[in-house]
Amino acid sequence: MQVRAPAIVCAIRPHGETAGIVRLLTADHGMVAGYVAGARGRVLRPVLIPGNL
Predict the structure, then answer these.
(1) Beta strand 7-15 with 19-26: parallel, antiparallel or unpaired?
(2) Over the stretch 13-48, which tens digit does the pLDDT of each residue have?
(3) In this structure, are residues 15 and 41 in contact, taking their beta carbons and an 8 Å threshold?
(4) Residue 11 · residue 20 · CB < 8 Å
(5) Residue ranges of the domains in the chain?
(6) pLDDT band (50, 70, 90) for residue 5
(7) Residue 35 and residue 13: Cα distance in Å, rounded?
(8) Fewest CB atoms within 10 A around its CB: which of 5, 11, 26, 45?
(9) E strand or H helix at 12
(10) Which helix (H) or strand (E) holds 24?
């Protein structure tokens, strides 16, 4: 399932070497967890900081 909605990053946990499990809070769907490939990489690491929109 893919969801596109504005969300606040609540937490991120490492999963493997570069991926992460991210917990997001959305207005429409509430608390959502998702797998993000490359979450701990150079490009996405600064974006996926808890508190960011």
Answers:
(1) antiparallel
(2) 999 999 999 999 999 999 999 999 999 999 999 999
(3) no
(4) no
(5) 1-53
(6) very high
(7) 10
(8) 5
(9) strand 7-15
(10) strand 19-26
- β-partners of residue 33 are 23
pLDDT at 1 over 90: no
What dotted CATH number matches 1-53?
2.40.50.140
Neighbours of 29 (CB within 10 A): 12
Amino acid type, 47: V
User: How big is the chain, counted in residues?
Assistant: 53
CA–CA separation, 22 vs 12, rounded Å? Answer: 4
3-state secondary structure (DSSP) of residue 26 = strand
CA–CA distance, 43 with 33 (Å, rounded to integer)? 20
Asked if residue 7 has pLDDT above 90, the reply is: yes
